[in-house]
Amino acid sequence: MPLVHPTGLPDAIVNLDRCIVVGVVNVTPDSFSDGGQFLDTASAVAQGRVLAAQGADLLDVGGESTRPGASRVSEAEEAARVLPVIDELTQAGIPISIDTMRASVARQAVIAGACVVNDVSGGLADGDMLPTVAELEVPVVLMHWRSHSADMDKFTHYDNVVAEVIAHLSDRAEAAMAAGIDSTKIIVDPGLGFAKLPEHNWALLHALPNIAKLGFPILIAASRKRFLGAALASESGEPRAIEDRGAATDAVSALAALAGAWGVRVHEVPGTLDAVRVAQAWKASDVG
Ligand code: PMM
Questions:
Q1: Ligand 1: which residue has its CA nearest to atom 12?
Q2: Pick from 57, 84, 177, 274: most CB atoms within 10 A?
C-alpha cells in the first residue's frame, strides 16, 4: 500500500516516501523515560535541535507527562513549558507537533508555529479540542484512550482488544469529522501502553494492517515503553532497563513501517531512522 500523508503538513514531510520519524521532546519533570532531562527551555530546545539534526522529520513537544500514574499539571504550567520551546524550534524551521489534551494549549502552540496537534485523549479530555483543531485546520493525532494517566492501569480489561480499539478509533474519527475536521487531516494511534497490558500492545501491533483498514494514517509510539522492557526481561524476570530499550524500539519501528505505519514516535532518532529506511527498501523491492 502506498504511503498516504495527511494533508496540511510541510513539504519536507509530504515529499517523503517512507514512514516518518517523530522525535519526542518532553518538557516535563516526570515523563516515563526522559522526565526531568529537558524541563528548562534551553535544554528542551537543544534536545530538539539534536533530534532534528539526527534526521527527525517532526518533533512532538509535550508539557504534561502521561506516564502511568501521572497527575495533571495546570494549563498555565503546561503552556509555559511548551510555548517558548515551540517558538524557538519553529523559528529554526523544524516542524513541530504539540502533544496536549488541552484545546487552549493546542491553539497557542499552533499560533506559535506547531503544524500538528497530538491529543492522546482523542478529543475526550477537553470538549473544545475537536472544534478548535477544526478551526486551526491542522492535522490531528487521535489516540485510543480510556482515562487520565492517574488511574489508567485500572482500565486494562478488554474482551477483544483489537476490535475494541478499532471501534473506538473509528468513533473518535467520526467525532472529529462531525466537529468539522477534514478526514484527510486525521491520524490514528492505538495508544500503546495506555490502559494496556503487554499482550494488548503486541496484539495491536500485530493487527496494524487491520487498523490501517480504517483508512487513516497510523502513528505508533512504542519507544522505550514497559511492554518492551517486559519482552526483554532477564531470566529472573527483571525488566530490561529503560535506557537499554533502544534496539527493541528500532525493531518495532522497522516492523511497524513494514506493516504500513505512517509515523513512529521515538526518543532516539538515529536507529529508528535507519530502521524505517530499511523497511522502505524492503517494501520498495516488491516487484509483484
Ligand atoms: N505516548 C506518550 C506520549 N504521547 N502520543 C501519542 N500519539 N501516542 C503515544 O503512545 C504517546 C503519545 C507517552 O510516552 P513518553 O512519556 O515516553 O513520551
A1: 120
A2: 57
Taking the C-alpha atoms of residue 3 and residue 204, their distance in angstroms, rounded to an integer, is 20
In order along its 288 residues, the chain shows pLDDT tens digits of: 568 999 999 999 999 999 999 999 999 887 777 777 778 899 999 999 999 999 999 999 999 988 877 788 999 999 999 999 999 999 999 999 999 999 999 999 999 999 999 999 999 999 999 999 999 999 999 999 998 888 888 889 999 999 999 999 999 999 999 999 999 999 999 999 999 999 999 999 999 999 999 999 999 999 999 999 999 999 999 999 999 999 999 999 999 999 999 999 999 999 999 999 999 999 998 887
The CATH number given to whatever domain includes residue 55 is: 3.20.20.20
Sheet with strand 96-99: strands edge to edge: 186-189, 140-143, 116-119, 96-99, 58-62, 20-26, 263-266, 219-220
Residue 13 inside a domain? The answer is: no
Active-site residue among 18, 107, 185, 225?
225
Q: What predicted TM-score, i.e. pTM, was given to this entire model?
A: 0.96
Burial of 53 (0-12, 13-18, 19+ CB in 10 A): exposed
Cell of residue 82, nine digits: 511548551
To the query of whether residue 72 is one of the catalytic residues in this protein, the response is: no
Count the domains in the chain.
1
Q: Is residue 146 part of a domain?
A: yes
Q: Is 118 in the pocket of ligand 1 (CB under 6 A)?
A: yes
Respond yes or no: is residue 224 known to be catalytic: no
Structural domain range at position 81: 18-284
Residues 6+ apart with CB under 8 A from 35: 26, 28, 29, 65, 67
Whether residue 126 lies inside any domain: the answer is yes
What is the residue whose three cell numbers read 487520565? 148
Instruction: In whole angstroms, give the CA distance from residue 247 to residue 268.
Output: 10
